[in-house]
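Final report, closing paragraph on structural work. Over the funding period we assembled a curated collection of sequence-structure pairs, and we close with a single example.
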Amino acid sequence: MFSKIKPKDTILGTIALILVALVMHFIPILGVIVIFFAPLPGIILWYRSKYSFGIAALVSIMVATITGSLFVQTFMIILLLASLIISQLLLIKASKERILYVVSFVTSLVTLGVMIFLQSIKKLPYAHELIEPYKIVVDETIRMQNLDAQSAKILEASVQQMAVQMPSFIVISITLFFMLSLLIMFPILRQFKVATPVYRPLYLWQLRKSIFIIYAIALLVSIVTEPSTTANSISQNFIIVLGFLLVIQGLSFIHYACSIKKFPIGVSVLLIIIGIIAYPLTRLIGLLDLGLNLKSMLKKR
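Its predicted structure, as stored:
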């Protein structure tokens, strides 16, 4: 065991992870920049020695615990989990889009799960409590402007919708973060002799069919269970996370159709933009593509 530990890598990786934890605690503004590079130490350590990664992870979590910040502790745990996933997928030579799918899916579920847990033990406010200041402003606007009942109802509905869609915002933010972070980190990882893939064209992106089955099960559970129950909350989180992945699958189909029909690049870009705006329809297209293999049907035609 000890022969598999790389002392130099362990020390440097541990110091880097400790610095990440301290920056996130003491200089959160700088942390906005550091966060895009934060997975690097963990990725390199797991790629070279899993034992070294374990030691560095243990020490860094201990330091995060000493800070007394629940946010820093949670951040470090999710960071280390993301680093492990990315590095393991690099070891098995997974495609870049698969790495993006998997790390976004897992970290989104863990993040939402942690949020539910912290809310249940009163360590984190619920969504409606977070938007309470905005609701107060809206109510004040309604009172001052003397709006009619219909306008007031629309504004109040927008506030409720914001609370409902907060998990979706979190999932989208995490996915966009990893999309940008992978673009930044992979060239750096190559300097450390870590083999990294490149993004394939969007029309070649393809989710596994198991996503279709999991999404269908989550939908079924959400229908047969009562709202606000644990099972319903878990199924809703799965629906949100998988739904976003299905949007990407739908965009992949749109790009594939444009390629097959040999549309000009400008038209392809326009259709993809429309697909992003009309994401509920794009999500349905992605679901149908997974279930019925629309790409294959289109190619045969």
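The longest helix spans residues 230-260. The chain has two domains: 1-122+167-199, 200-300. We thank the funder for supporting this effort.
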